[in-house]
Design a protein that fits this description.
The chain is of the alpha+beta class. It has 15 helices and five strands. It starts with a helix and ends in a 10-residue tail after the last helix.
């Protein structure tokens, strides 16, 4: 997506939400646009109206951090919004060739994968900026079994949320909240990786196939998904409430390591234990079924096709 359009729509949506009265300016029915006028933002940020108009048209090349900070303060950005503005400015000042080298990756270091495999009692997984599932612990694979099973070669949390709503609305009791976060994280990623073709294709796919995604995307929300509490409903164990932390393995990493854990001694911790048992039983049943199939193939006379009666 063109960076200029993203800058314009983002800044316009943010000034539209600020009531003039909240910054000491007169409101009233005489205003033709909601929120602050462009010139009012310029005055409050301490820049000329012409300069701010150029910025809002999407021209962030050469804009200083001081000016960006002033705009962020004027428009009352939170940390996620401020980071998004700086990401957009950074992209405007980097050549397309260099930006292309920062596209999100679909693999992780072996050591990180080994660490995930050693995490037995927590839900842990690695995702990239596109919300692709890159690696998972066994318990994460159990909790997100629907995500894995519907995802084909590349499970993706956003695609699951919007294109498999019969399952995602069951897994996420607060589906609206989970969907909002997914869209906001993709919007944040788009600011950091404007030339990531895979990200653009994903956003285009979701916008084409999901009216809910289109509506949420138009809100221009951005989010840094760092920590919190989330409730899931798994078809095998019921509701489970987990605390999560989003850890970035290395500075400027393209991946996030998310770890979900239950409060020790809680019913949620018991639910995780049940989930682990369910996953182990399921894996054992699958292994037995595979073993039986192998034995049947081995006992079949050579040259006989199993599909031929």
């Amino acid at each position: 997506m063109p960076n200029e359009n993203e800058v314009r729509d983002f800044l316009m949506s943010r000034r539209a939400r600020i009531a003039p009265e909240s910054v000491g300016l007169p409101g009233g029915a005489g205003r033709r646009v909601p929120g602050l006028r462009r010139g009012e933002v310029a005055v409050l940020a301490g820049v000329s109206a012409e300069y701010y108009a150029r910025i809002e048209r999407g021209n962030l090349a050469g804009v200083t951090d001081t000016v960006l900070d002033a705009i962020a303060r004027t428009l009352r950005f939170d940390d996620s919004e401020r980071s998004h503005l700086f990401d957009l400015a950074r992209s405007a000042n980097v050549s397309p060739v260099r930006r292309a080298r920062t596209s999100t990756s679909g693999s992780v270091r072996p050591g990180l994968r080994f660490a995930l495999e050693a995490m037995r009692d927590v839900v842990a997984f690695v995702q990239n900026a596109r919300l692709d599932v890159v690696a998972m612990s066994d318990l994460a694979r159990a909790l997100y079994s629907d995500v894995v099973e519907t995802g084909g070669d590349q499970p993706n949390f956003a695609r699951f949320a919007f294109l498999h709503q019969d399952l995602s609305r069951r897994l996420y009791p607060d589906w609206e909240g989970a969907a909002d976060i997914s869209v906001a994280m993709l919007r944040t990623a788009a600011g950091r990786h404007p030339d990531d073709r895979g990200l653009r294709d994903l956003i285009g796919e979701l916008a084409t196939l999901s009216p809910e995604f289109r509506q949420k995307w138009a809100a221009h929300e951005v989010r840094l998904h760092t920590h919190g509490v989330k409730t899931f409903h798994h078809h095998a164990v019921g509701d489970v409430r987990l605390h999560f932390e989003n850890l970035t393995p290395g500075l400027d990493s393209e991946h996030s390591l998310l770890v979900y854990a239950a409060e020790p001694g809680s019913t949620d911790a018991e639910s995780l234990q049940l989930l682990a048992s369910w996953a182990a039983t399921r894996a054992a049943d699958g292994a037995r079924a595979t073993g039986v199939s192998d034995e049947m193939r081995a006992s079949r006379p050579a040259g006989v096709d199993r599909d031929v009666p």
